[in-house]
Amino acid sequence: MYGWRGTILNVDLSSGKIDKEKLPEDMAWDYLGGRGFNIKTLYEELEPGVEPLSPENILVFGTGPLNGTPLGCGRMTVTTKSPQTGFFVEGNNGGFFAPELKFAGYDIIVIRGRADKPVYLWIKDEKVEIRDASHIWGKTTWETDRIIKEELGDPEIQLRYIGPAGENLVNISIILGNRARAGGRGGAAAVMGSKNLKAIAVRGSGGVKIARPREFQEALLEIWEDLDVDGSKDPFTRIWGLYGSPIVLRIQQEYGTLATNNGQEGVFEKVMDISGEEFLKNYVVKPKACFCCQSPACSHWCEVRDGPYAGTRTEGIQAGSTEALGSYCGISYLPAIIKGHALCNELGIGMFSTGTTIAWAMEAFEKGIISSKDTDGLELRFGNHEAMLQLIRKIAYRDGFGGLLADGVKKASEKIGKGSQDFALHVKGLEYTAVEPRSSHVAALMHAVNDQGSDHTRAYPPYPPSPQAVPQEIVEKLPFDLRKASDDSIPDEKGKLLKWLFDSRATLNCLEFCLFNSRARTFADFRPFAKAITAATGMKFSADDLMEVGERVINLERSFNAREGAGRKDDTLAKRYLQEPFPKGGKAGFLPPLEELLDQYYEARGWDPETGVPTRGKLGELGLREVADQLETLAKQMQGKHDGKD
Amino acid sequence: MAKINLKYIAHFSLLTGKLEEGIEVREKTTVSDLIKRLEQKYGGFEEALIDEKTGRLNSRNKVAIRKAGGWTENITTLEGLNMELSDGDTLIFW
User: Fold this and answer.
1) pTM check: above 0.95
2) What chain A residue is nearest to B54 in terms of C-alpha separation?
3) Could you read off the pLDDT of A556-611 as tens digits, one per residue?
4) What's the CA gap between A264 and A577, in Å, rounded?
């Protein structure tokens, strides 16, 4: 095949059996890659009700047709059933693993079963073996990275691995690679840990065949033109390209949406101390980027040179790091945030979930719901960075009070009770990430209806395209009224806008193109992507074909969760987001009218407005009739059980 | 005279060498007048914000305003550029 390598790698850790199967052409057409391949595999393979930490659960690592070309940027998706939410969970990691996997000859890895001792997978072109990892078990991600490269004798090997948190089945653990490329919130690393799989190592010597190289190069240049820091018509191009996302912190502050002290406020008085400008001036050593990326300031290598955390070196500080480990926890000491970021990466826990969970504990402490007797003696007050850093370690090792937080904020708040559930910030059991639900109508709706829980990346960026950046013929075809959708003083058109954002971003995740790089024209104009994918694969895709893939994926993801019992009742927000407006700042007083927004969204989707589940008609349109049959059968079985009880 | 707060983020902090400053403007000063004043003082503001062909705001950078006690709103239209500034207004350039 062109574009794809045409091979699925199946690994059964229980039996040790490894086999390779051909990637079906219709799967490539219908799902493109990455996120699409993964949810199709997960839906078809898992029976409803599978225990996430059992050998019956699977882990799918999927790449897309653009990985291994300069457009792929190293993105890839890992998908599994979450031990934290009971629904599917996926993570989109960057770095260099995805192109290397393609160079080795594979599009997808499916991991099944459970090894009887710690192992890692070593893929070198066609040779694949399961190797002993007993000597690495317990090591940090950074140690794992070094040890495996040393023992295999090749510093260019690419890896995905878990830290101690994944081994300890911590719900808020994540999978990492290239020491800082994280993904899989909701416990993907715990699933990997439950399978005794410490790491996957890959090295490839092949390439990705392009069907029509000249056309591909033309499309590539069209897409890259948008990413020129001087010429781009989108302000974020320059931010990603020159400064890095921590610059966004002061923007959020000025719009009154910088979640502070567990979201009690939208303005952090000490924002200057943790700003992107402060970070760039005093801590950044050099920019780092993913494979072939045109936005080199997205990630930074940074160092703390003095003070109690001197010697800390890490990579990948994003705005999310300075929010989650900073303003959420009321912490204004940037070296401590950098240290916390380093610890999260090395121990393998997610920064957003960690910050949100610790911020909840700090609020519970300050309100007297818990005391130092509950927290192993820690004075968990907002701003106490020493306590935060101790808790990060305790979470990763399930030590004392950290063991409670290791299950995530929903379960922790349910155990503590006493009203603490009201300020436990999560959706479907997954902690709040970024883009405050009280920042706009579409942000609120985005978090609420997201099938894997709170996650700002599923509709990023969460606003409509600029008519100045997008060709007029594309503006005219947008499936929403751009003027109303752009007016956040009214809820109108936000359901249609979110559907379009979700579908188009899902398409990009299937291509495994980075969301940071779909800006300006290509935020809305997918013709260059259609040209690129057609030239790469030799299969003719139109922009509409690509958007349909995104819609199919969203419907299948929702159907996966529906099989597990999810529906409209789960599409909600934490009580704070619905009842407590920010008291001051640039968005003071705003609360999202969630029920109205949900009605809009389901109507735009063609889903049942009462259940929030895809209808037979919609699934049929997308070629998912068998899914419709299964959902109907399950609904009848549930009704039968319900009637039997009556 | 009206006291105005100016916030400079990303590109604009490089243009000005500052993160923020407070200035005073005469009554009936508009957003457009302010941009001209900042252009004279620092340079680069009009190029960053205004489309030279149409004279309208471009989409490469943003200017937003927060009236005292109000929400922060992006300025996107000619009407917005002609808005008169009041005491306590905050303008954000990014």
Assistant:
1) yes
2) A468
3) 999 999 999 999 999 999 999 999 999 999 999 999 999 999 999 999 999 999 99
4) 10
- CATH architecture designation of domain A441-645: Orthogonal Bundle (1.10)
A590–B19 C-beta distance less than 8 A: no
CATH of the domain at B45: 3.10.20.30
pLDDT in tens, A296-338: 888 899 999 999 999 999 999 999 999 999 999 999 999 999 9
DSSP state string for A90-158: EEEE-SSHHHHHHHHT-SEEEEES--SS-EEEEEETTEEEEEE-TTTTT--HHHHHHHHHHHHT-TT-E
The strand pairing partners of A202, in sequence order, are: A123, A158
- Number of independent structural domains in chain B: 1
CB contact under 8 A, B51 and A468: yes
Give the residue on B whose Cα is nearest the Cα of A229: B60
Spatial separation of the C-alpha atoms in residues A459 and A498, rounded to whole Å: 7
Task: Decide if A235 and B60 are in contact by the 8 Å CB cutoff.
Answer: yes
Q: Domain A235-431's class?
A: mainly alpha
Which of B7, B11, B59 is facing A233, going by the closest CB pair? Answer: B59
Residue pLDDT, tens place only, B3-58 = 999 999 999 999 999 999 999 999 999 999 999 999 999 999 999 999 988 889 99
B59 and A590 within 8 Å at the Cβ level: the answer is: no
So what's the architecture of A7-203 in CATH? 4-Layer Sandwich (3.60)
Instruction: Give start-end residues of each CATH 1.10.569.10 domain in chain A.
Output: 235-431
* A228 near B CB under 8 A: no
> How far apart are the two ends of chain A, measured CA to CA in Å?
56
How many beta carbons lie within 10 A of that of residue B2, not counting itself? 16
Neighboring chain A residues of B9 at a CB cutoff of 8 Å = 247, 250-251, 254
For A225-244, the pLDDT digits (tens) are: 988 988 889 999 989 889 99
Domain region containing B14 = 2-93
Nearest residue, CB atoms, A468 vs list B58, B72, B94: B58
Whole-complex ipTM: 0.97
